[in-house]
Specification:
Layout: H1 2-27, E1 35-39, E2 42-45, H2 46-62, E3 67-70, E4 83-91, H3 93-98, E5 104-111, E6 114-122, E7 128-132, E8 137-139, E9 142-143, E10 156-159, H4 169-179, E11 185-187, H5 192-200, E12 206-212, H6 214-226, E13 230-232, E14 244-249, H7 254-261
Parallel strand pairs: 3-4, 10-11, 10-12
Antiparallel strand pairs: 1-2, 4-5, 5-6, 6-7, 7-8, 8-9, 12-14, 13-14
Helix pairs in contact: 1-2, 5-6
C-alpha cells in the first residue's frame, strides 16, 4: 500500500503541475477569456476544461483504467467506490476570471472512500501542498502543522459564502453573527481547497462551509488531517467524500467551533 500511495501521489503531482502550467499561461490574458454561467453565480471557461483534460490524460497515462470524478468533464460515478481520482481542475474559477490571485488545482486519490494521496497546487501564489495517508502533510517538501491556538478570541476563521444556493443564507449569517464577536476575524477568499491548505499550514485556525462537492474538499481534507487537524461534518462525524457541510480546524478548537456553529453555547 505504501508503494501504491507513493505512485498515486507522484501521478497526481505530475498531473497538477501540467494543469497549473496551462492555467498560469492562460492567466496572462484572463481579461480576454470567454466564460459561461453554469448557474447564476457559478462560471466555467475553456481554462477549466483544458486543465481537466490535461489532468485526465496525465493520470490515465500513469494509471490506466483509473476512474476520475471531476467538476467539469469526468463526473464518473461514486467517489467512494474503488480507486478514484477526485479532481478540481481550477478551484477558484471566479477569482481566476477576475485576476484575483487565489486559485489552484486540487487532486485527491482515494480508495473505497478513504483519501490516500493528495496534492493542491497553488497556481497564483506558488506552493505545492502534498499529503499521503499516515505520512504527514508538506508544502514544497517542508512538513506542515496546524496552528496551536486554543483561545477562540485569537482564532482566524476561513469560510465560504453559500453562493450557489442562497436558501442557506439566513442560517449562514446567523453563524457569522455568533462568530464575529468571538474570534479575531473571518476571511472569505473564494477557494475552499486553498482555505483548507491554510488550516493545514496554520494560517487559519478553522474553516467551515455549508455545502461543498467532493472535488472542493477531498484533497484539502487529507492535508488538514495529516497536518494534525480535524475535518468533520456539522454534527461532528468524520467527513466523507460524498459532499455536504465541512468543518475543519486545528483540532484544539474543534468542539468549541462545532458548538458555536450549532448555537449550543447559549
Amino acid at each position: 500500500m505504501h508503494a501504491d500511495r507513493h505512485q498515486w501521489l507522484n501521478a497526481a503531482v505530475s498531473a497538477a503541475a501540467t494543469a497549473a502550467d496551462f492555467i498560469a499561461q492562460e492567466a496572462r490574458t484572463h481579461r480576454a477569456i470567454q466564460w459561461e454561467a453554469k448557474s447564476a453565480t457559478d462560471f466555467v471557461s475553456h481554462v477549466d476544461l483544458g486543465a481537466e483534460e490535461r489532468i485526465r490524460d496525465t493520470l490515465l497515462a500513469r494509471i490506466p483504467g483509473l476512474r476520475i470524478v471531476g467538476e467539469e468533464l469526468s463526473n464518473d460515478g461514486n467517489p467512494e467506490d474503488g480507486l478514484v481520482a477526485i479532481v478540481d481542475p481550477l478551484d477558484g474559477t471566479t477569482n481566476f476570471l477576475h485576476g484575483f490571485p487565489n486559485y489552484c488545482v486540487s487532486i485527491c486519490m482515494a480508495l473505497n472512500g478513504v483519501p490516500q494521496a493528495a496534492v493542491i497546487h497553488d497556481v497564483a501564489r506558488g506552493g505545492v501542498y502534498t499529503a499521503t495517508a499516515g505520512a504527514g502533510a508538506f508544502v514544497d517538501g517542508q512538513r506542515m502543522h496546524v496552528s496551536t491556538i486554543a483561545e477562540p478570541a485569537r482564532a482566524l476563521i476561513g469560510t465560504g459564502f453559500p453562493f450557489r444556493d442562497v436558501s442557506y443564507a439566513e442560517r449562514y449569517l446567523a453563524m457569522m453573527r455568533r462568530l464575529m464577536p468571538a474570534t479575531a476575524g473571518m476571511r472569505r477568499a473564494g477557494s475552499a481547497a486553498l482555505d483548507l491548505t491554510d488550516v493545514a499550514h496554520g494560517r487559519f485556525d478553522a474553516f467551515w462551509e455549508l455545502w461543498l462537492n467532493p472535488w472542493d474538499f477531498a484533497a484539502g481534507m487529507l492535508l488538514v488531517r495529516e497536518a494534525g487537524g480535524r475535518v468533520t461534518d456539522l454534527e461532528g462525524r468524520e467527513a466523507r467524500l460524498l459532499g455536504g457541510t465541512i468543518v475543519a480546524s486545528n483540532g484544539t478548537l474543534h468542539d468549541w467551533f462545532l458548538d458555536i456553529l450549532n448555537d449550543r453555547l447559549g
